[in-house]
Each structure stands twice: as C-alpha cells, then as structure tokens.
UniProtKB/TrEMBL annotation:
Xref: SMART domains: AAA
Main location: membrane
Membrane topology: Peripheral membrane protein
Superkingdom: Bacteria
Family: Belongs to the ABC transporter superfamily.
Protein name: ABC transporter ATP-binding protein
Pfam family, one: oligo_HPY
Alphabetized NCBIfam families for the sequence: oligo_HPY
Location(s) in or outside the cell: Cell membrane
Keyword field: ATP-binding, Cell membrane, Membrane, Nucleotide-binding, Transport
The keyword Coiled coil appears for this protein: no
Length: 312
C-alpha cells in the first residue's frame, strides 16, 4: 500500500545560504497522528510547508522529494498543485488572524472553503464549538478573539475532509486555558473524517498525549521516530533524551531542569557528520561522518550509537 505521505531525503536551501532541511526522511500512513518535535530551527516548519508546495520563492529543493499519494508535490503543475491543496490537504497555522482574509466576512470565507461540498456555513462553524455561529459568520476576522479565529481556520481546513492536515503550532498563540479545547476540536474532526494529522509542535507532553507516532527533528533531519510511548519513554537518540529531560515537569521536586548545552546548528550545506555531535555528551570520533539509519522494530534512529542502544 502506498503511504499517504513520503518525505524522501529532502534537502531545502534558502537564498541566504541557510540549509533548512538536510536529507529529511519520513513516511506516514493514512489515518496516523504524527507529532513532529524539535527546537526552533530544526526544520519542522519548512517540512510542513514542503508537504503542500508552500515553500517561499527564496527556498529551493536541491534533492529528494515529497510525495502525497505517490505524486511528487514539487513537480506538479500549478493547476494540479492547486487541486492537491484544495482536495487532499488542509492547513492550520500558528497565527489564526493572519490566515484569514481581513477584507471578507467569516461566513463568506467558510462558504468558499466548502466549494459546494454540502453542509451550510453555520453547521461547520458549530462543529468547531463556536458558541454563536451566526454572529461569527457576520464578523470580520479582526472582530474575533484568537481562539475564535483559530476555530474558524480549523473549520475551513476541515471543510473538504482532507487526507492530510498539517497543523503548525496551532495553539502557540492562544491562551493556555483554551489550548486543550482547540486541540480537542482538531483531533475529533480529524478522527471522524479519517484525516492524517501532521502536528508540528514544541509541546512534548501534549504531543505525547495525542499523537500515535513521534518524529524528532534536528539539523534538518528526522533523527528518531517511533511510537509516542517508545520515543518519549525510552529515547534512543541522545538529542531525544536531552529534549525529554528538558521538559518542565520532568525534574523531581527541588531539582533544576536539565538544559541542552550549546545552540542548534545553522547549516550552510550538507552536514559532514551528525549535526548534534558538538552538543552530544556521548559523541564518538565516528560522529564526524553522517550516521546510518538504524531500524529496530517500530523505531528508526539516526545515530552511530543506536546499534548499541537497541541491543544489537
């Protein structure tokens, strides 16, 4: 069976010389909920944009490919790419107000997203748990709170029941008290539609709670992937272990949080070796070469030490 999404050795460079993705690889099956985590600059947002052919003009794919249902996204002609976004993909971005047209009433925007698929505007606003759909439909985006605007964005993204929903930090700009409600809306609608979720986030506890699989990114590559329980419960890549140890609440009462020393790399081309090696307490001389992908059960780890870690 063809995976719904394949990211195969994807490398993306920007005009300023920065390499955002350095051979990222990820395979996602239909209906999965995949959380992509990592520090800022790890390549999460660039990967999410590449899935929908939404990379800015300053970005260039230098190698690799992104495939949705077997079709290479960056090779599609404009008409086919628009059809892909319209019929198979949905996006929820970090800034809800910025994702809506400020000159158009909300109801009209939702109606355009429906494109004659059935269901009226108010019913779609109601299912994202807006308390007064009629009032929201008459409003302009600037008249809504951040939480209301994000619910509208979710309603529009899920209007066509997409195969894949890319959610890029969808609750980062919202108050803590409404984040869980918004996430409940996203995951419940996706489950009902059979939609695959690709959730890009810094919130490891929330991702671990809601996602079936985790992909950890560092230096523009996926360095570890597997089940949420496995990756967070028994990390096999040193970077994953460092991330888990740095999560607020991971330390015992009275203990300090364990920070990750150093800074994430700013790549200007392919990394010669493991990008995490300069920050890794367990680095080997071998880490000066690019690590192999070690597969053990449901876990994939990009690390020279992974063979030892998985007991081989």
């Amino acid at each position: 069976m063809t995976p719904v999404l394949e990211v195969d050795g994807l490398a993306v460079d920007y005009e300023n010389g920065v390499r955002a993705l350095d051979g990222a690889t990820l395979t996602v099956s239909a209906g999965e909920t995949v959380g992509i985590v990592g520090e800022s600059g790890s390549g999460k947002s660039t990967l999410g944009a590449a899935v929908g052919g939404l990379l800015p003009s300053s970005a260039r794919i230098t190698s690799g490919a992104v495939r949705v249902d077997g079709a290479e996204v960056h090779r599609l002609r404009p008409k086919a790419l628009r059809a892909l976004r319209r019929d198979r993909l949905g996006f929820v971005f970090q800034e809800p107000i910025g994702s809506l047209d400020p000159t158009m009433r909300v109801g009209k925007q939702v109606a355009l997203a429906l494109r004659g698929r059935g269901g009226d505007v108010l019913s779609h606003l109601d299912r994202v748990r807006l308390s007064d759909p009629a009032r929201v439909a008459r409003a302009y985006p600037h008249q809504l709170s951040g939480g209301m605007a994000q619910r509208v964005a979710i309603a529009m993204a899920m209007a066509c029941e997409p195969e894949i929903l890319v959610a890029d930090e969808p609750t980062a700009a919202l108050d803590a008290q409404i984040r869980d409600d918004v996430l409940d809306v996203i995951f419940s609608l996706a489950a009902a539609a059979g939609t695959t979720i690709l959730w890009l986030s810094h919130d490891l506890p929330a991702v671990g709670k809601r996602c079936s699989r985790i992909a950890v990114m560092y230096g523009g590559r996926v360095v570890e992937s597997g089940t949420a329980a496995g990756v967070f419960g028994a990390p096999r890549h040193p970077y994953t272990a460092a991330l888990v140890a740095a999560v607020p609440g991971a330390a015992a009462r009275g203990e300090r949080l364990t920070s990750i020393p150093g800074q994430p790399p700013v790549l200007t081309g392919p990394a010669d070796g493991c990008a995490f090696a300069p920050r890794c307490p367990d680095a080997l001389d071998l880490c000066g070469s690019r690590p192999p992908l070690v597969v053990a059960g449901d876990r994939e780890v990009l690390c020279h030490r992974a063979t030892v870690a998985v007991g081989r």
